[in-house]
Amino acid sequence: MMTGMYVYRRSIVSILILFLLSLIFGFYTCTDMFRSDIVPPAAFIVSPLDGAYGLQGTVPIQIKLYDNSAIEYVDFYIDNVKIARLKRKPFTYYWNTNFWNSTIDHRIYIEAFDEYGNSAFSDVIEVSVALGALTGPVNTYPGNDALISSENLTLHWKGQKNASLYHIEISTAPDMSEPVITEQTADTSYQLTLERNQYYFRVRAEISIDDTTQYFTAYSEVHRFFIGERIFIQHLEGEASEWGEYIFQNPDSSYRIVATKRIYLSGGTRYRLLIKDLDILGNLRRQDEYYFFQKPYAAAQIDNNIVLASYNLFNKAIWMSIDTSGTILWQNVLEEDSRAKALTTGSSGDIYTIAEKLTSGDSLSVNLIQMGTDGTIFYDRQLFMYPRGQFDTHWDIVENSSGNFFLAGDRGLIMHLYEVTAGGDIIQQHTYDESSKYQLVSLENSDYGEILIIANQLFGNVGSYNDQLYNVDNSDGVILHVDASGNLVGRDLFDGSGLEMIVSVKKTSDGGFILSGSTDSRRFGLNDIWVSRLNGDFSEQWSCYYGKTMNNFGAGICETFDGGYIFTGTITSYTSGVNADIICVKTDENGRTIRNWFLE
Fold first, then answer.
1. Is 239 exposed, middle or buried, given 0-12, 13-18 or 19+ CB atoms closer than 10 A?
2. Cα(59)–Cα(82) distance, rounded to whole angstroms?
3. Which architecture characterizes domain 232-599 according to CATH?
4. 437-445/451-459 β-pairing
5. What is the pLDDT of residues 378-390, one digit of tens each?
C-alpha cells in the first residue's frame, strides 16, 4: 500500500516537472508534434477584378484567405516585384496608382503564409492605371546611354516624398535579371565602384506607414550606362553576299551602315542598296533594301539624312536622300546613260556632285551638278570629255578655302586634279606621276592649306573585271600633298611586304586622320583589316590589324562621340553559298576591341 502510494506520488511529481519544463522550453512546441498543419492556404484577389481598366488614385487590393490555421502575413507583388508585406487583418493593401506607368498592363498577385510556414500564391490579375504623372524616384545621373570614364561614380535620383529607404538595383542585363548590386540607402545618392562594362540601373522608394506596413513605389525608368569605352564586334550575316561600304554615327549614338547586296537572277548578277541601322552596341535594329539602286559610289550625312550617289537598274545616274526611318525623302534620276560618282556639300549648303554621262562615240562627259538639299537641280554643266577606258574612274570633289572646288579622278589609272569654280569653269588642271598607276580613294583638306589626294599606288599587273580593279599584284597606300596651285609638295607612303589598300579616310576632331583598309602582309596572303591613326602632321600615332579567319576587308570608318572609332567592312564566308558578310567593329581611342579579333 505504501509502495503503491509512493509510486503514484512519484508519477505526479514527474508530470509536474514535465509540465514546468514545457512552460520553460515551449509548450506549443510539444503540442505541435500532435497538431501539425501541412495544408497551404488558399489565396484570392477579389478586388480589383482581372482586366480592370483605368484605375486611378489609391486603389484597395482586397483579398480572401482560407486556411486550417492562422494567417501569419501576406506579400503583395506588382510586376513580379514585392511591394508590401502585411501582417494584420484584413490584409488590404492600398495601392497608390500615381506611382505606376499608365502605358503598360500591370500584373498583380499575392503570396499568403500561415503560422506553420505553408504558403500559396493567388492567380495573377492584369490591370491598367489611368494616365497620370509618375511620382516615384527619377534617375538623374547617369543619364541614359551615358559613357563614364571613371570606374568610381555616384548614382543620383530625384527623391520621393515621405520615403524612408531607397532600393537600388544594378544589373548587366536589360531585364534586370542578373543584378550585380542590390543595396538600400536613405539618401538620394549612392557611391560605388564598377568594372569596365555595360550596366543597367533603377531605384524605387519605400514608404513606411507603421512597424508592420511598408509601401513601395514602382521602379524608376531603367537607365543604361557604360564604364569605359564601348567596344564590340558584330558579324552581320545576310542571305546573300553583302559588303559594308560606308558607316555613319547618328545623334543618338546609334550607327548606320550603307552596304551593297549581290543577288543572282535569271538575267544575270544584280546589286541592291542596303541600309542597316544598328543600336549603340551594334545590334541590328532595322534593315531596308532598295532594289533599284545599285552599288553606291558616294554617301554623305546631311542633316542626319543619308544622301547617296550611284546608278539605277537602267544605268541612269541617281541621287537619293534617306531619313533615319528608312524613308526616301527625294530622288533624282538623269535621262541619259550615266553614273553619279561623287558628292559634297558646299559652304552655301547646296550639294555639288559629279556625274559621268555616256555620249556618242563611247566617250564620257564629266559634269558638275549643283542641287539643293531637297534634290532640286540648279544646273548641270559639262566640264570635259574623255574616252571610255578599261577601268571605271573614281572621282571625288571637295571645296577649298576660296570657295572653288577641287576635283580628282584616276582616269586610266593616272591621277588627275582639276580646280573649278562653283559655276563649273575650269581654273587649272594637273596630272601626277604618269609613269605610276593610281586608284583614287578620296580628297581631303588639310589644316595647312593643302589638298590631300588619298590613293593606292598599284604595282605589277593590274586586271579588270566589269570595269573594276581585279587581281592587283601589289599596292601601297599613299597620300599626295598638293598646294593651292596644284603643285605636288609631298607624299606619305604606307607600304608593307604585300598588298596594302586604303579604302576610307576621315578627319578626326583634333585635326588628325583615321584611315581604314586591308593588308595581306601579315597572314601569308590572307587579308586583315588595317586601321591607322595619323596625327595632323601625318605621322603615325598607331596602326592596328583585325581579323580571325579567311579574308577581311575594311571599308568606311568614322570617329565616335566617345572618342573611339567604328568601321565597317567585309568578312568572307563559305556557308550556305554566301561568300561575303558585313562586319562592324567598334574600338576604343587606341584601336583596341574584342580580344579574339584584335591582332596584337
1. exposed
2. 17
3. 7 Propeller (2.130)
4. antiparallel
5. 999 999 999 988 7
CA distance 95 to 537: 66
Of 456, 463, 464, which is closest to residue 437 (Cα–Cα)?
Answer: 456
The span from the CA of 78 to the CA of 218, in Å, is: 9
Residue 212: how many CB atoms within 10 A of its CB? 11
Q: Which residue, 350, 352, 328, 329, is CA-closest to 342?
A: 352
Closest to 443 measured CA to CA, from 398, 493, 394: 398
CATH number of 138-227: 2.60.40.10
pLDDT(576) > 50: no
Question: For the chain, what's the residue count?
Answer: 600
Which of residues 464 and 451 earns the better pLDDT score? 451
Phi, psi of 32 (to 5 degrees): -60, -25
pLDDT digits (tens, 9 = 90+) for 499-541: 899 999 999 999 999 999 999 887 655 889 999 999 998 899 9
The answer to whether 463 touches 472, Cβ cutoff 8 Å, is yes
For residue 271, the tally of other CB atoms under 10 A from its CB is 19
Q: Is the pLDDT of residue 25 over 50?
A: no
What are the start-end ranges of the E strands in 291-414? 298-302, 305-311, 316-322, 328-345, 351-358, 363-371, 377-387, 395-399, 405-409
Q: How far apart are CA 258 and CA 245, in angstroms?
A: 6
Please choose, from the candidates 600, 512, 495, the residue with its C-alpha nearest in 3D space to the C-alpha of residue 557.
Answer: 512
Query: How far, in Å, CA of 255 to CA of 94, rounded?
Result: 46
In this chain, the answer to whether the domains covering 42-127 and 138-227 adopt an identical fold is: yes
Amino acid (1-letter code) at residue 394: H
Domain layout of the chain by residue ranges: 42-127, 138-227, 232-599
Instruction: Quickly name the fold that domain 42-127 has.
Output: Immunoglobulin-like (2.60.40)
CA–CA gap between residue 573 and residue 553 (Å, rounded): 12
Average pLDDT of span 358-384 = 93
pLDDT score, position 598? 55
What SS3 string covers 116-170? Answer: CCCEEECCCEEECECCCCCCCCEEEECCCCEEECCCEEEEEEECCCCCCEEEEEE
Confidence of residue 172 (pLDDT cuts 50, 70, 90): confident
Mapping DSSP to helix (H, G, I), strand (E, B) and coil, where does residue 258 land? strand
Q: 62 φ, ψ to 5°?
A: -100, 145
Residue type, 433: D
84, 94 Cβ separation under 8 angstroms: no
Whether the pLDDT of residue 400 is over 80: the answer is: yes
In this structure, are residues 351 and 344 in contact, taking their beta carbons and an 8 Å threshold?
Answer: yes
Pairing outcome for strands 316-322 and 305-311: antiparallel
Q: Are 207 and 216 in contact (CB under 8 A)?
A: yes
